[in-house]
Design brief:
Elements lengths: L1 E3 L6 E4 L6 E3 L5 E2 L1 H11 L12
Antiparallel strand pairs: 1-2, 2-3, 3-4
Length: 54
């Protein structure tokens, strides 16, 4: 599945089983849980989703 890379804004690849998110344009490589937290802290529009990942 394709998602937006929070670092370079390019296209990143998310595993079908939601285990990782990797970007081929930059060195971004995180688990899906880390990715969700990372984008939530980086972009205030997503902060309300953090309660789902406590």
């Amino acid at each position: 599945m394709k998602v937006r890379c929070p670092d370079c804004k390019g296209v990143a690849e998310m595993a079908d089983d939601f285990t990782f998110v990797k970007c081929g344009n930059c060195s971004f490589d995180m688990t899906y849980g880390e990715y969700v937290k990372y984008i939530a802290y980086k972009d205030s529009r997503y902060r309300d989703i953090l309660s789902d990942y406590k």
